[in-house]
Amino acid sequence: MAYVVKRNNRYTGYYRLEGKAKSVGTYSTRAKALQAGLLAEEGNLDTLPDNQPTFNDYVSGLISRSDIRTITKKTYLTLLKKYATSLGARKINSISRKDIKTLIDDMKANGVSNSTIAHLKTALGYIFRQAVDDEVIQDNPTHRIRIPLAKPDPTYTLEAKDFSLILANLPTEGSILLARFLVASGCRYGEATELRVKDFNFNAKEVYIRRSVSDVGKELGNGDRFQVVSATKNYTKRTIVL
Asked: pTM, whole model, 2 decimals?
């Protein structure tokens, strides 16, 4: 039977499904929370009160936050727009584990690789995890869904003779210098291209990796296609000895 729990000055509605209590979101009044619980019990999850956001509305608000890297936002949005359009107009609380599994099965049937499916599941997992933290939903529907991935082929190690051939075919002294630095330092391309003279300590033979650049697109970059971040991919800075 539907019931309501008061949380500070707001109210969370609950209903029972297969013996388990499930949340239908938090509302400004007890009446709205109870109405949501009753509708959910009847299976009308897509007719919940207006303050239940659709999946697209929730993602739009989530993407505006600053606790996720812009390049990660771009990756997630690209995957969602291409593969998860069926979820867009659904109220986020109505999306079940079965819906996610159906989406994944459809992708497999259309020949989408397991690697891409796993990336989409990661994006969906992040979104629903945040929705749980925001008390918009109670359970993350991507939990316990596993995507089997084939073991990668053994990595081919670039040998000295291979690298010599690469250097011989590079067009400028600058490109040769960059290639040699990338191999010697292990830096990512986006880190190496943002180095400044002050980042080099020639006496100690050290390089300070302080920034990185990503192609985030003009929409997420506020008009600028490239975004420079004062940290590496893992939000850290490091020193490399050459």
From this structure: 0.63
